[in-house]
Here is the input.
Amino acid sequence: MLVMANSVYYVGWGTLSLINAGLAQSKGRSGLVWWLLSFLIGP
Here is the structure.
């Protein structure tokens, strides 16, 4: 059960980083840079 909880946490983390990248791209900024920063720093 602990493994499943950890995988859900990482999926959520990845999803939030993709949302941040999409928002950055819609504002004319580099989506890749924002995705990487969001992924490393996290929620």
Q: What stands out?
A: The mean pLDDT is 87.
